[in-house]
Amino acid sequence: MLFTSYAYGVFVVAAFIVYHLATRTSRGRLTQNLALLLLSYLFYALWDWRWCVLLAGVTASGYVGALLLGKLQVRRGLVLLAVLVVDLGALGAFKYFGFFADSFAALLGAFGLHADSVTLSLVLPVGLSYYVFQNLSYVIDVYRREMSATRGALEYATALSFFPQLLAGPITRPRDLLPQLFSRRIFDDARARDGLRQVLWGLTKKMLIADNIGLQVDYVWANIGRLDGVSLLSAAVLYSVQIYCDFSGYADIAIGTAKLFNLRLSRNFDYPYFSTSVRMFWRRWHITLASWMRDYLYIPLGGSRVGRARHAFNLLVTFLAVGLWHGAAFTFLVWGGLHGTYLVLESRLRGRPSGSQGERGRPASALLAGGLTFALVTFAWVFFRAPSLGAAIDYLVQAVSRPFGAGDFARFVPTLLLSAALLAYEWLTRGWEHGLSIAAIPLPARWATYVGLCMALLIFGYLGTRQGIYVQF
Predict the structure, then answer these.
(1) How many CA atoms lie within 13 A of 341 on its CB side?
(2) Any domain includes 453
(3) Residues 454 and 200 sit within 8 Å (Cβ to Cβ)
(4) How many Å apart are CA 28 and CA 23, to the nearest integer?
(5) Does the residue 219 lie in any domain?
(6) CA separation for the pair 4, 253 (Å, rounded)
(7) What DSSP designation does 96 have?
(8) Does any domain span residue 36?
(9) 198 within domain boundaries
(10) What is the domain extent for residue 409?
(11) CB-based contact 202:194 (threshold 8 Å)
(12) Distance between CA atoms of residues 74 and 83, nearest Å
């Protein structure tokens, strides 16, 4: 059930009615949470009912593990290890087993040895990477005594399964969502209206911009050999906009949907393409994943409070893990390695491991830094988008060796202009929570905007036909 389908709209309306009817009972909070839990498992079961068993197992590992950590004074590390093995084992089996088995067989083959490739053919459950990381953040926080283990099994299960965040995040940590579930929520008209506006903005970015750009990008990757460098460069820039609008659009729909239930999910994007450094980019792009990796991998490795060589190692390991989180492919490892390398070089150029110097300068230098940052990020996206390392190399070689020719640049002009218009609009509204935070403008103008966008979605949007890029992760 994709966020851009009619089915999702019907489901949200039905869930909204059931949820707010539950609010009126004498035990409002409990019935609210029970309704959300059942609705979330129903939502997941509509994808594949068997995945609900996996979700319940991960939830139980975190809930029971945290309770044990709260009671024990010794051997707490063994409990944490057990939860890590269970959760990462499930993630590894579904997401990485085939990749590592095939890679090991290929490595042996390079040395003239033969090994049968044993591939575990499992379909990756939607959202597994997201709720596993949520579960681990909770258990690790309890292990560190940064929060207490909850006895509310219903609340914890609801926090992990809350359906708007199941498909593509954001990775809202239980320590942020649980306190909201332990209080009774009443209908908030202003928040619900803003939630609908944010959902509409998310649909606009996903269906009108990302999906239309995606057709152009798919065309280029299917015809690399006959296109010139200008066309390939245009497609690389367009993909940068596509993946941003696709992923941030899904995040806006998730956050906006949560507001209908008077719940707050973590912000996941903060105008990342206006960053003047790669370091700033990762403070603004997929914020919940970046902060998770920082708190639970980078800092435990030593962070920046180590020598230069160790700091470089910590950055590279962290971003290789970020790449691997996205998928079991060498293209993602190269993408993560590139970002880790960018950050190592930035820290050296700044002269401080943590890069703590101010990131704002004169307008001209800020513009230059922003352009360079966008170029570096766009270059890395080529590997992210490529179906294989060989295809990525072919793409780059073709772009350099044949910069001009009888390409199809003209076909990219409309989507390039659309992308420029989006970025210009976001620059003007960069202080807003989302692009339709327009409650203060006159009512006729607001409704003209709503109706116009809805008509555009119906005419030009791809309704429920193109899955979000980050749903596969």
Answers:
(1) 10
(2) yes
(3) yes
(4) 5
(5) yes
(6) 9
(7) T
(8) yes
(9) yes
(10) 191-276+360-472
(11) no
(12) 16
What does the alpha-carbon distance between residue 26 and residue 4 come to, in Å, rounded to a whole number?
36
Q: Is 311 a catalytic residue?
A: no
Residues 214 and 232 reside in one and the same domain: yes
Instruction: Report which of 164, 212, 196 is spatially closest to residue 463, judged by C-alpha positions.
Output: 212
Closest by CA position to 352, among listed 361, 360, 343, 340: 343
Contact status, residue 76 vs residue 143, Cβ threshold 8 Å = yes
| Nearest-angstrom CA–CA distance, 232 and 398 | 8
Integer Cα distance of 84 and 233 in angstroms = 42
459 Cβ contact partners less than 8 Å away, ≥ 6 residues apart: none
Q: Are residues 157 and 232 in the same domain?
A: no
Identify the active-site residue in 20, 286, 311, 326: 326
Token pair, residue 357, equals 């110097």
Total domains in the fold of the chain: 2
Q: For residue 178, how far is the Cα from the chain centroid?
A: 21
Instruction: Name the token pair of 108.
Output: 């042996």
Range in 103-107, 158-162, 177-181, 335-339 the model is least confident about: 103-107
Tens-place pLDDT, residues 75-130:
999 999 999 999 999 998 888 765 555 554 555 555 565 555 444 455 778 899 99
Largest Cα span, the chain: 73
Do residues 73 and 144 share a domain?
yes
Rounded CA separation 27/178 (Å): 18
Report which residue type is found at 125: P
Query: pTM of the prediction?
Result: 0.91
- pLDDT single digits (tens) 239-275: 999 999 999 999 999 999 999 999 999 999 999 999 9
